């Protein structure tokens, strides 16, 4: 059974813009465990669904996609963004 995880996109810590804030990302959960490759030692698996990422403008669109395609899903909402307002001169006190 394929399980989808729908997460709310946050802005990156190093960015002040809010261009992608409010968009939603659908990713698939891993269905088989990773195992080390005998030649290189890198971790991998035969599950390629984890490489698929779909972006949606709203949560309703993401949920509608899951119900249309028969996917079970769970929603992970983003935490609140805390801003620390500080003047440049405060760095030298």
Walk me through the topology.
Layout: E1 3-8, E2 24-28, E3 35-36, E4 43-44, E5 53-56, H1 59-68, E6 72-76
Parallel strand pairs: 1-6
Antiparallel strand pairs: 1-2, 2-5, 3-4
Q: Short description, anyone?
A:
By secondary structure, the protein is α+β, with helices and mostly antiparallel strands. The chain is 11% helix and 26% strand. Strand 3 and strand 4 form a beta hairpin.
Gyration radius, rounded: 19 Å
* Basic shape: flat
Percent in strands: 25-35%
Which regions contain 5 or more consecutive residues with pLDDT less than 50?
none
Structural category: alpha+beta
* First-last Cα distance: 57 Å
Number of strands: 6
What is the H/E string?
Answer: EEEEEHE
Helix content: 10-25%
Across the major sheet, the strand order is 5-2-1-6
Outline the biggest β-sheet.
4 strands, mixed
Write up this protein.
By secondary structure, this protein is of the alpha+beta class. 11% of the residues lie in helices and 26% in strands. It contains 1 helix and 6 strands, in the order βββββαβ.
Write out key terms for the chains shown.
26% strand, two-stranded antiparallel ribbon, 1 helix, alpha+beta, 93 residues, 6 strands, 4-stranded mixed beta sheet
